[in-house]
Design a protein that fits this description.
about 300 residues; binds iron/sulfur cluster; single chain; alpha+beta; four-stranded antiparallel β-sheet; two-stranded antiparallel sheet; 8 strands
Length: about 300
């Protein structure tokens, strides 16, 4: 096996520099929006409107106070072995299901899976605390307009690896990636149940060492739960991380704050989430804030928003 020219620390540094410098990480002035906006943030394919909304409307109501607002901090990154049996566990019905892909479904000789978390900027997080029910405009912009940056980061890391001569794929950017963000059908992908995807970044993140679930099925990374996830599969054999947790809930102290904050009362006894209640609440935000939508009350204003907590 030939030595890697790139190590994890280099990847972390260049990915962080990309987040500092890429225009995708800042709310653009409406004049900068182009025809490419719809493709660029995958909005047409992976949005809760089921392709019905027009991504070019994003930014049409950009106000001067928000233009230039940064969405995400520098990312945290973990490296997991593609051969980890945890990837097979994700295919079990009690996890995601048989339709979930393995790393080798993306790259036959996959060796590593890299998980990245982009933590929301302080301004975004602070804004969500003003109202217990309504999402802040900052949150909606980071969640929807900022999708473009999430995908750009995935593409950046993928391309940095391929430039070293290795194979790399960012699943969320592939045509084979499928998710159903709501209960409506997905054309030709009825094998994916509602509120599921064939590459669950949260489950993948648990396997790669990025973090664990929280009680409300949120994901608590090493930078906390207020962030977005993306991953890259590669045949470059970076040194895998050692996990500092043993169970899928280890970063959660079970304080219940996330569950109490849910404006839709979507959590049943024991913390089980009623996805339809959550989806109905998100749908209301679609009606009110289209083309944006979101909630995030179970990801913000809670003790684990910026850091993992000890086992409870
Ligand atoms: S708020 Fe408390 S219960 Fe909810 S995920 Fe965070 S640590 Fe766990
Ligand atoms: S996103 Fe909002 S509605 Fe859905 S579970 Fe979290 S807090 Fe509840």
């Amino acid at each position: 096996m030939r030595p890697n020219a790139m190590d994890k620390q280099t990847l972390i540094r260049i990915a962080g520099d990309f987040c500092d410098n890429s225009p995708t990480n800042y709310l653009p002035d409406r004049a900068l929006l182009s025809e490419g906006a719809a493709e660029g943030n995958n909005f047409a394919r992976n949005n809760i409107y089921g392709n019905a909304s027009d991504a070019l409307r994003l930014g049409a109501d950009s106000e001067s106070d928000y233009v230039g607002m940064r969405f995400y901090k520098r990312p945290v990154l973990s490296v997991g072995a593609a051969s980890n049996p945890g990837f097979f566990d994700i295919k079990k019905p009690e996890a995601v299901g048989a339709f979930h892909k393995l790393p080798s479904d993306w790259i036959p000789d996959a060796k590593r899976v890299l998980s990245l978390c982009l933590p929301f900027e302080d301004r975004i997080l602070a804004s969500t605390k003003n109202d217990p029910v309504e999402p802040s405009l900052e949150w909606l912009m980071a969640r929807v307009d900022g999708q473009k940056h999430l995908l750009a980061l995935g593409a950046f890391v993928r391309d940095a690896i391929t430039q070293e001569g290795y194979a790399a794929i960012c699943p969320q950017l592939e045509d084979e990636y499928a998710m159903r963000p709501a209960h409506f059908p997905l054309p030709d992908r009825n094998d994916i149940p509602p509120y599921a995807s064939n590459w669950s970044e949260r489950h993948v993140g648990v396997v790669t060492g990025l973090g664990t679930f929280g009680l409300s099925t949120n994901f608590i990374s090493k930078a906390g739960c207020a962030g977005r996830l993306i991953s890259v599969v590669t045949d470059m054999a970076l040194c895998p991380d050692e996990k500092d947790y043993n169970s899928y809930l280890d970063y959660c102290n079970k304080c219940g704050a996330c569950i109490r904050k849910c404006p839709a009362a979507a959590y049943l006894e024991g913390g089980k989430k009623d996805h339809r209640l959550c989806g109905e609440h998100i749908h209301k935000t679609c009606m009110k804030y289209e083309p944006r939508y979101g909630c995030g009350k179970c990801q913000s204003g809670i003790p684990c928003e910026r850091r993992p907590l000890a086992k409870g």
